[in-house]
């Protein structure tokens, strides 16, 4: 099958690598150089889909410290819960693997047309197209889809005093972020420091760096993050994935692990369905599996995010106090990708009372 993949970021490259072993793949990327814009921290679930080379794994994380003002909750497991990679090398490695099994074109896709039983990208015809060209996807725009709820992430690397090399630190003060701010340890002295904001990202990031007393740091990188829940990503002989489809975990701003799972589900379907590529077939065969395995989780992430966005600093202080009392349950059942696995299991009387008090914020 002749497949066009638009976008050579981690998910586009992963899709090319996955499909390229048995199909005729063309991978398009408009930028001349692959530049990573994610933080490079993944749950260990990613290892079910892709195992990065050991030399690009910088740290292995066992949990997190949740902080706001003078309150904190320490959630630390005995086992590894996440890996931290060199994000630039991670993306480059995937890209290089993709180029081994695909034809690579440094070309901007300006036009998408459905002609008979093929999809035309500029002057190239394909049986099927996968769109992975980011939050400002040209494919999405051509298909009449525009993502409205965009947040912005800023991050740098610096020497930093952190609580524990094996713990990520998350800060929830509104003066730092509309989402959360973070410290991700890379080694004994360096860490990735970042924020996600809806507005005034540079000002809030500056506030966070001053709070941490960071005076010297590497180049600041930034990127757009679509936050929400989107279901319109399947078209005639074309499927959008990752940021292009708005398939981001709204609680964390990440989406590569679940994006890889989306690619895996699509790969299994097309491998077994004799290539029925119409929108009707894809909606019938791919969408229900995607919704069961991934869609319900993304919807839950979005509902949780909507609730969290309505909390003020005092609410967060109370929530972190609850997290302290629930630390054993969170360690046992918590999952950064699949909230359905733990939400009910971590509830206790005090948590129910907190939710009851803030009931209106759930909607």
SSE arrangement:
Elements (H helix, E strand, L loop, with lengths): L1 E5 L3 H10 L4 E5 L12 E3 L13 E5 L1 E6 L2 E6 L5 E4 L1 H14 L2 E3 L6 E4 L2 E4 L2 E3 L1 E4 L6 H5 L7 E10 L7 E5 L9 E5 L4 E8 L3 H11 L9 E6 L7 E2 L2 E3 L15 H17 L6 H7 L1 H23 L3 H13 L1 H7 L15 H9 L6
Helix pairs in contact: 1-2, 1-5
List keywords for this structure.
363 residues; alpha/beta; FAD/NAD(P)-binding domain; 10 helices; 19 strands; 32% helix; 25% strand; globular
Q: Overview of this structure, please?
A:
There is one protein chain. The protein has 363 residues and is an alpha/beta fold. It has three domains: 2-58 and 85-148 and 229-303, FAD/NAD(P)-binding domain, CATH 3.50.50.60; 150-226, D-Amino Acid Oxidase, subunit A, domain 2 (D-Amino Acid Oxidase, Chain A, domain 2); 310-362, no CATH class. Helix content is 32%, strand content 25%. A hairpin with a 2-residue loop joins strand 9 and strand 10 (118-121). Helix 1 packs parallel to helix 2. The longest helix is centred in the C-terminal third of the chain and has 23 residues, at 287-309. The chain is globular, with a radius of gyration of 21 Å. It starts with a strand and ends in a 6-residue tail after the last helix.
């Amino acid at each position: 099958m002749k497949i066009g993949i638009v976008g050579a970021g981690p998910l586009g490259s992963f899709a090319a690598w996955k499909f390229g072993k048995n199909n005729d793949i063309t991978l398009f990327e408009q930028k001349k150089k692959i530049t990573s814009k994610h933080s490079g921290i993944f749950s260990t679930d990613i290892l079910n889909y892709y195992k990065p080379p050991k030399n690009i794994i910088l740290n292995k994380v066992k949990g997190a410290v949740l902080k706001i003002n003078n309150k904190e909750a320490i959630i630390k497991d005995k086992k590894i819960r996440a890996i931290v990679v060199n994000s630039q090398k991670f993306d480059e490695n995937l890209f290089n693997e993709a180029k081994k099994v695909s034809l690579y074109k440094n070309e901007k896709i300006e036009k998408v047309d459905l002609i008979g039983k093929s999809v035309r990208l500029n002057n190239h015809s394909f049986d099927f197209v996968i769109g992975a060209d980011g939050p400002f996807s040209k494919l999405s725009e051509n298909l009449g889809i525009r993502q409205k709820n965009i947040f912005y992430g800023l991050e740098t690397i610096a020497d930093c005093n952190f609580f524990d090399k094996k713990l990520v630190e998350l800060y929830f003060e509104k003066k730092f972020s509309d989402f959360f701010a973070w410290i991700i340890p890379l080694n004994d002295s360096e860490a990735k420091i970042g924020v996600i904001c809806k507005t005034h990202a540079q000002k809030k990031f500056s506030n966070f760096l001053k709070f941490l007393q960071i005076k010297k740091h590497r180049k600041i990188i930034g990127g757009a993050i679509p936050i929400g829940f989107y279901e319109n990503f399947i078209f005639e002989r074309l499927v959008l994935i990752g940021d292009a489809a708005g398939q981001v975990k709204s609680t964390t701003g990440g989406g590569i692990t679940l994006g890889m799972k989306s690619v895996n589900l699509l790969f299994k379907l097309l491998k077994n369905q004799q290539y029925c590529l119409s929108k009707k077939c894809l909606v019938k065969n791919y969408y229900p599996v995607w919704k069961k395995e991934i869609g319900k989780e993304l919807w839950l992430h979005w509902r949780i995010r909507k609730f969290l966005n309505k909390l003020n600093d005092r609410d967060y202080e109370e929530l972190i106090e609850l997290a302290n009392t629930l630390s054993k349950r969170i360690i046992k059942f918590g999952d950064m990708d699949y909230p359905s696995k733990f939400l009910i299991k971590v509830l206790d009387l005090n948590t129910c009372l907190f939710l009851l008090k803030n009931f209106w914020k759930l909607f």
